[in-house]
Amino acid sequence: MTRILITGAAGFLGSHLAKALVSEGHEVFGIDNFSTGKPDHLAALADCPDLTFITGDISDARLLDLDELKDVQEIYHLASPASPKFYQAHPFDTISVNTNGTQNMLKLALKNLAKLVYSSTSEAYGDPLVHPQHEGYRGNVNTWGPRACYDEAKRLGEVYCFEYWRQFQVPVKVARIFNTYSAGLRNDDGRVISNFVTQALENQDITVYGDGSQTRSFCYVDDTIRGLRLMMESDRATGEIINIGNDKEYTILQVAWLVKILSASKSKITFHPLPQDDPIRRRPDIRKAKKLLGWEPEIHLEEGLRQTIAQYRQRKTRQP
Q1: Domain NAD-dependent epimerase/dehydratase spans what residues (predicted)?
Q2: Which label site among 22, 87, 95, 110 has the fewest CB atoms less than 10 Å from its CB?
Q3: Are residues 48 and 82 in the same domain?
Q4: Is 150 a catalytic residue?
Q5: What are phi and psi of 74, to 5 degrees?
Q6: Is residue 44 part of a domain?
Q7: Any idea what DSSP says for residue 100?
Q8: Do 46 and 151 share a structural domain?
Q9: pLDDT at position 44, please?
Q10: Is the pTM of this model over 0.85?
């Protein structure tokens, strides 16, 4: 049994990871301040003896003195708003959790001789001029825009990871996570898949920003979680930045039509002004993940969307 800490445990990725680890008999400690995470995400584990949940903010250094965290062997640092809707509403908290919070988790890893996986983001590449994006590309980020509080904070979090690895040999691994989805996304999350599926099931207009020609790649959550776990397990990932995402590229308009068709929706597709700094093209180069981890996505977008739509529809019918 491994003692594992998950920050952001009530969030989208954190809750999926917690369920997977507990099901295998690991002792899991979860921390969340519920700024964007939801208690419902962990409702299935409410009575689980192998999950200890701590309500708190990892930017607060006092958490480092908690008895529960003394012998933690692995740390998945997933805490942070990830949707533009939320990180733009809370820019200072977003900056803090990815800088102060990251340093706190690195201090804990150093103290416990623990391994740490840091969830960075494809946003580190900004609006990329290189396509697809490989880990050596330094990005094209606007430091003076509405997305900078997230993009730049994540990039600085990577710097903290690098310095703790270089100076103190803390076994850190940095995952640059690309768009991830499943029914676990909040309906009000504001990201593409949750927006489209929610709108389609309500027969509301499906809102596409710009002309829909901008591209993204979408990775089903099970594949993303598998990639993060392989990073934790692999010594070859130590001191490395690795893209975790699906390398199949779709236009946003293609995704809108696919959701509409799969959900048999009567929604109209409507077009709206493109937000500032919205990337035009986004697709990971995953050759490094294949080489170091033996990882690549297994779930095709159409299959993942079918599962997502079915679960959103089931959840909708249960609502009073």
Answers
A1: 4-245
A2: 110
A3: yes
A4: yes
A5: -135, 140
A6: yes
A7: H
A8: yes
A9: 87
A10: yes
Q: Which of 283, 172, 121, 280 is nearest to 218 (CA)?
A: 283
Residues in the chain: 320
Strands 115-121 and 74-77: parallel
pLDDT of 46 reads 85
Neighbouring-strand partners of residue 176: 120, 243
| pLDDT, block means (10 residues), the chain with 320 residues | 96 96 96 92 89 95 92 97 91 97 98 98 95 96 93 97 98 97 80 94 96 96 98 98 98 97 97 90 97 98 96 77
Structure tokens at 76: 């998945």
pLDDT value at residue 188: 75
Tell me, yes or no, whether 228 lies in a domain.
Answer: yes
H helix runs in 180-300, sequence order: 192-201, 221-233, 252-262, 287-293
Q: Are residues 53 and 130 in the same domain?
A: yes
- What is the side-by-side strand order in the sheet with 241-244? 51-55, 27-32, 3-7, 74-77, 115-121, 172-177, 241-244
Q: Considering the candidates 87, 118, 125, 150, report the single residue annotated as catalytic.
A: 150
Q: Are residues 134 and 99 in the same domain?
A: yes
| pLDDT for the residue 315 | 81
Answer yes or no: do 22 and 147 share one domain.
yes
* Domain count across the chain: 2
CA distance 288 to 244: 10
Residue 154, pLDDT score? 97
Instruction: Give the position of tokens 């590449």.
Output: 125
Clarify whether residues 78 and 105 are in a common domain: yes
Residues 127 and 200 both lie in one domain? no
Neighbours of 153 (CB within 10 A): 26
Residues 165 and 255 in one domain: no
